[in-house]
Write a structure and sequence with these properties.
This protein has 498 residues and is mainly alpha-helical. The chain has 20 helices and 11 strands. Bound molecules: glutamic acid. Glutamic acid binds next to loops.
Length: 498
């Protein structure tokens, strides 16, 4: 068997199951693994752990790769990406696990277990009754028990699993790159299954053989694997593999302190994309879920993460997933860290997806480019963009008379009608259709009619945008142009009545 550390190039990986999406926890592991590899000039590998045949979802690999790319975390090797250490999909490596299991049996470090699941359930129930920790009772560890169990199994047409023969005593020390050293009593460990009766391996056996074959030097994985780490150390030893550096990353918890799950809302990367978050913001936010540069820096680019990422700054305590913070950060990226050009592209794509088919395509990029500076200060989620922009792209405004009149004119529609008449006259006469002139003229109308400027502006806002809340009025009117605004004002005049 080869040693994992045959060269000093850093190689990291993620090993998701093909469940159809990239979970945020896996995405965070990917980000750290990628940043760590890049920091050291090494490689980052994608491997698919598809040995749980009950959980396969078609096109998962494409979705995982797409999610990683969306985040800007590009694997160097993986299924469909090439690389010297493939195949990168476990179901294509089954023979290597079976060979390793056979070797462990031959050298006395593993054994076939023929016990039925009914028997295992009964053993567990009895242990529960006696308030003992659940544990396989090792019946098949000895020849006599195994022969008996095998006869029963063969009579019933059942196959065997392979269990690791955990030493009965001693200790193992895990030197975790995040958590430091801890020593475990081997006597407390179980004879765990390494090969299932369908011939597929369990995670424990498969991951370490793959990591070894793929020359992985640093395994970053979630804290949920920490309890398994002592068994893994024993299995590495039996297999003659030098363990890679193990780094257990803090759990991600929901705001209520329980492990992040569907109950807390979206948990996959694409759900956040669809909700309207920018990849840079999701990346940055996840980067700080369990790691920090110092206690103040909140905004870091991909390059800065790569430059600064070290394992000693990974925190030990669970990280709390605070979606308000993500939304705030998204706003920061929209306002300050995205070029107007790119933001225009992003807005146009989003409008294309979100606006009804009745609005003409392609979306007029030139118009949106002018709108971007007006709304980027306000938009926190891309899902809000359609509501800010639709009236620039469609003349089909749908507002009610109540919307138009608002509180200010609710009881005096005549005053609204008169005000709109004045505004139309002034608008038609305005030679230079630009925001400063528009504001000056409308303020003059308000004075002349003894209206509050704000009340008049609200009336005009609904008339030209169809909304009581919109991007800045005069800038919007400038972009809409005089002919369109006058048309809309005339239409609103009819709505106001009389
Ligand atoms: N398939 C495992 C998971 O997604 C991989 C854990 C690991 O990184 O080793 O949790």
């Amino acid at each position: 068997m080869t040693s994992s550390l045959i060269s000093n190039v850093v190689r990291t990986r993620i090993a998701p199951s093909p469940t159809g999406f990239l979970h945020l926890g896996t995405a965070r592991t990917a980000l750290y693994s990628w940043a760590y590899a890049r920091h050291h000039g090494g490689q980052f590998v994608l491997r698919i752990e598809d040995t749980d045949r009950t959980r396969l979802v078609p096109e998962s690999v494409e979705k995982i790769l797409e999610s990683l790319r969306w985040l800007g975390i590009e694997p160097d090797e993986g299924p469909g990406l090439g690389g010297d250490y493939g195949p990168y999909t476990q179901s294509e490596r089954v023979e290597s696990y079976q060979a390793a299991a056979a070797r462990l049996i031959a050298q006395g470090d593993a054994y076939e277990c023929w016990c039925s699941s009914e028997r295992l359930d009964a053993v567990r129930a009895e242990q529960q009754r006696l308030k003992q920790p659940p544990k396989y009772d090792r019946r098949c560890r000895e020849d006599a028990g195994r022969a008996e169990a095998q006869r029963e199994a063969q009579a019933e047409g059942r196959g065997a699993v392979v269990r690791f023969k955990t030493p009965l005593e001693g200790s193992v020390t895990l030197d975790d790159a995040v958590r430091g050293a801890s020593t475990f009593d081997v006597a407390l460990l179980d004879d765990f299954v390494i090969l299932k009766s369908d011939g597929f391996p369990t995670y424990h056996l498969a991951y370490m053989l793959d990591d070894d074959a793929m020359r992985i030097t640093h395994v970053l994985r979630g804290d949920e694997w920490l309890p398994s780490a002592p068994r893994h150390l024993l299995l590495y030893r039996a297999l003659g593999i030098t363990p890679p550096v193990l780094a257990h990353l803090p759990l991600i918890l929901g705001p209520d302190g329980s492990k992040l799950s569907k109950r807390h809302g979206a948990t996959s990367v694409f759900e956040y994309r669809d909700l309207g978050y920018l990849p840079e913001a999701v990346f940055n936010f996840m980067g700080l879920l369990g790691w920090s540069l110092d206690d103040k820096t909140e905004i870091l680019s991909h390059d800065e993460f790569v430059q600064h990422f070290t394992l000693d700054r990974v925190v030990k305590n669970p990280a709390i997933f605070n979606v308000e913070k993500l939304t705030w950060m998204n706003g920061v990226y929209i306002r300050e860290h995205t070029s107007a050009d790119r933001l225009t592209d992003i807005f146009v794509a989003r409008l294309d997806a979100d606006l009804p088919a009745s609005i003409a395509r392609p979306i007029d990029r030139a118009v949106i480019a002018r709108v971007v500076p007006l709304i980027r200060e306000r938009v926190k989620l891309l899902s809000e963009v359609a509501d800010y922009c639709d009236f620039f792209l469609s003349d089909d405004l749908t507002y009610s008379r109540d919307d138009l009149l608002g509180k200010a004119f609710a009881s005096k529609p005549d005053a609204a009608a008169e005000a709109l008449d004045r505004v139309i006259t002034v608008a038609e006469a305005l030679a230079d259709w630009e925001q400063v002139a528009l504001e000056t003229e409308l303020r003059a109308v308000a004075d002349e009619l003894a209206l509050k400027a704000g009340d008049l502006f609200s009336l005009v806002r609904v008339a030209v945008t169809g909304k009581r809340v919109s991007p800045p009025l005069f800038e919007s009117m400038e972009i809409l142009g005089s002919a369109r605004c006058v048309r809309r004002l005339r239409a609103s005049r009819l709505v106001a009545g009389r």
